[in-house]
Each structure stands twice: as structure tokens, then as C-alpha cells.
Amino acid sequence: MDDKIFRTLNQFTGRNRFVDIFMIIISKKLRYFFAYFLVIMWFQNNFHKRITSLAGISAIITLLLTSVIKLVYFKPRPFSKKRVNLLAPVPSEKDSSFPSKHTTLAFAVAISVLFYKRTFGCILSILAFLAGFSRIWMGQHYPSDIIGSAIIGSIVAIGVNFSSNFWDPFINRVIYTYNRFFL
Prior knowledge:
Blueprint: H1 2-10, H2 17-42, H3 46-72, H4 78-81, H5 101-114, H6 118-137, H7 143-162, H8 164-182
Helix pairs in contact: 2-3, 2-6, 3-5, 3-7, 3-8, 5-6, 5-7, 6-7
């Protein structure tokens, strides 16, 4: 089923230059938009600094978890097993297809923001979905990689947000220190 869905989506890769370029831009540049968004939020009030901190903690935990999973579990990328329509940049065949770092990070940040800012969180969630979809379109991940990665990023964000009382002393110290020295 995974391969069938992948083939159905990937068959359109390379047929429309505009869509291909859009997918490449989403895949390569969306992470900078997420980072820029968090930086802008940081420079608002303390409430926004707290949201940014929780999103950052979620992203760091997700990045660590993704790295551990890739160390203990290897899944070949679609292009290493069969002929697929592939868009550059092409990742290494030695890098596991699961989980997708792009997707896990995007969902970790989007869901963290969604807890506190529904409109922005919904927009970021749509962009996170596009980030994952672009990875399938480019021939770099299977749909199950993206779904699993979205689940991982979301669960981490939910866990961090539900345990925010644990993180509050650290977050409050960071915000206090920043405000004291830079404001």
C-alpha cells in the first residue's frame, strides 16, 4: 500500500516545472520560515517568548529522538530500491528514510504553536503538511515515513506542552535573563 501511494504521487514529479520548483522551495526553504516565525514571536511579549521556548524545546527533543531512531533503525529511501522520479537535492542513500527530519521538526513547532495561537498554529500545520508532502513528491520519502514523522513531531509537542510545568522554571529563567540583559 505504501509503495502504491508513493508511486501514485511520484508519477507526477517532473511533469510540471512550476509544481516541481514549488516543492523544492517548500522542502529546502520552509525550515527557514519556521525559524524566522519563531524569532519574530520571541521579540513580542513574554507570552510569545514562552510559546517560542516550548516550540524550541519540542524541536530539540524531536531532533534528538529522530537522530536516535535513525541510528537504531534503517529504512532505505525510495530511490535506493527502485527507479523513481527524483528531484534535487538528492540525500545520501546511507541516510534512513524514516523518520523525515523535515517533517518531524515542522510538526513539532506547528503543534507547539497551535496550543496557544490557533490561527498561526493552523497555518504552520498546513505548511508542515506541505513540507512532508514535498518530500514524497521529490522521491525522498514514502508516505508512511511522513505520517510516522508527523506523529512523532506531534506527540513530542503534545508531551512538552502537557509537561510545561516541568519546563516553566527553565523557560522563566531564560526569559528573565533575556529581558534583564537585552531590554
